[in-house]
Amino acid sequence: MKRISQLLLPLTLALGLSACQSELEDINKNPNEATQGQPDYVLTNALKSSADLVMGSDASMETTVLFVQYWAKIQYTDVDKYTTSPTNVQNVWTNTYTQGLNDYAEVIRLGEQAKNPNYQAVGLIMRSWSFQVLTDLYGDIPYSQALNIDQYLTPKYDAQKDVYTGLLNDLQKAVTLIDDTGVSPISGDVVYKGNMKLWRKFAQSLRLRIALRIADRDAATAKTVISSLSKTDLIASNDETAQFTYLTSPNQNPVNRDRETRDDYRVSKTIVDKLVQLNDPRLSVYVNKTADYTPQGYIGVTNGLPADSAARLGFTKTSKLGDYFTAASAPAVFVNYAEVLFNLAEAAQRGLTSDDAATLYKQAVTASLQQYRVTADEISNYLAQPSVAYDAANYKKSIGEQKWLALFGESQESFAEWRRLDYPQLKPAYAGVLNGRMPVRLTYPTGEQALNNANYKAAVANQGADLLTTKLWFDVN
Predict the structure, then answer these.
(1) Are the C-beta atoms of residues 361 and 390 closer than 8 Å to each other?
(2) Could you count the other beta carbons within 10 Å of the beta carbon of residue 21?
C-alpha cells in the first residue's frame, strides 16, 4: 500500500500542477482581446503596409526614386551618390516579409477557414504583388519556403526565374478563385471596396506585367500568358487603377509625413529637363516652381552632387516635388491604367498580339495625361510633336521614356522597367561611388548574412556578387 501511495503522489502533484496551469491560463485570458485576427482588419493593415512600401523612405525616397532620377537630394547627398543605408535595405526586406506578406498569408488562411474564396484571392494577388516587388529589387529571394516559419526557419532562396513563374501560377489561381456573384462578400478592402471584377482585372494586369518582365529570357512563357489575355481582362480606365488612397494625419501619405520635418529632397534635373524639352503638360503637376523667382521657373537638381555643391544651389531657387504628390491623401499606386496600355503596346510590337502598337502607345500616353487632368487640346498638341511620336524601329526608347514619365509616382516599377528597357538613358550620379556605374538592384540585408547564411551564400553563388551593380536575371542588356 505504501508503494502504491508513493507512485500516486507524483501523479497527483503533476495533475494538480497541470490543473493549476490550465486555470491560470484561463484566468489570464483577456475577454476583450481577440485571439484570432479578423480578415477585414488584417487585409486593411496589409494594404496599408504595401502602400507604405510604394511611397515610403526605404524602397522609394532613399533608394529607387533617386536611382531613376525622379528626385534628387539637396542635403545629406550620400544616398544620392549610391551609398545606400543598410537600414533602408534591411527595412524593405524585413517589413515586406513580416508585415505585408505575413498578413496576406493570414488573409488567405482566414479565407480558407471561412470558406470565402474572395479573401483567398485578394490575399494571393497582393502576396504576388509583394513578392514581385522583392524579386525585382533583390533578385533571388525566399519564395517557396517563405511564410512557413514552423517548417522552414531558414528558407532557401528561389531563382528569380522560378519566382516569376510561381507568381504567374499564383495569380492564375487567384483569378479562378474569384467569385463576383456577390455570394462571398469581403470587407476591409480599401482598394476596390469589395469589387471582385476589378480585383480580377488587377490580377490579370499583374500577369501581363510579369509576362513582359520575363519576355527577353523566356519568350515562350510570355507569349502563352499574353495570348491568354484579352483587353476586357485588364484594367481599362484610370478609374480602375489599383491604388491605396491615404487619409489625413496620422494616416497620411508617407511623403506628406516626411515633409513635416524634412526639406532635403528636390526634383531631379534629369526629369525636369525632359519635361521641359517635350513641352510636357505634366511639368506643373510633377514639379513646383522655385519659391524665389528664377527665369526658368522650374529648376531641378543634379543627382549625386557633393553636399556643399548641392547646398549652394539654394533651397528657394530649386524646385520641390509637386503638390499632387505631397498631399496627405496622395495615393500609392500598385498598377495604373497607363502602364497596362504601354505593356499592351509592347506586346503588340513584339508580335505577341495582333493589336496595333502605335495606337496603344498613344492611348497609354493619353491615359497618363488624363490621370493628371490634362485637357484634350493639350493632349492633342503633345501627341502631335515629333519628339513624342511612336518609333517602331526603336520601340524601347519610345515606350521606355514615356513609361518612365508615366510612372513618376511608382519608382520601384519604374526602376524595374528602366533596367529592362534600357530607356531613358540616364547618366550616373555626378559624384557616384560606383565607378561610373548605376545601381541595378539592392544588396541583400546584413541580417540574412547573419541568420540565413548558407542560403544567402547559395543565392550569391547562383546570381553573382552581392553588389548594387550585379544585374538580375530579367535584366538582359
Answers:
(1) yes
(2) 10
C-alpha cell at 336: 495604373
Q: What is the CATH number of domain 39-250+329-463?
A: 1.25.40.390
Cis preceding linkage at 424, omega within 30: yes
Contact 212, 347 (CB under 8 A): yes
Question: Binning pLDDT at 50, 70 and 90, where does residue 329 land?
Answer: very high
Rounded CA separation 258/272 (Å): 22
Please say whether the beta carbons of 190 and 122 come within 8 A.
no
What is the C-alpha to C-alpha distance for residues 367 and 435, in angstroms, rounded to an integer?
39
Q: CA-CA distance, 189 to 387, in Å (whole number)?
A: 41
Domain spans, the chain: 39-250+329-463
Q: HSE on the CB side for 179, CA within 13 Å?
A: 13
Residue 347 CA to residue 212 CA, distance in Å, equals 8
Please report the beta strands in 66-163, taking only residues with DSSP state E, as ranges in sequence order: 71-73
Kindly report whether the peptide bond that precedes residue 250 is cis, defined as omega within 30 degrees of 0. yes
**199-254 pLDDT per residue, tens:** 999 999 999 999 999 999 999 999 999 999 998 999 999 999 999 999 988 899 99
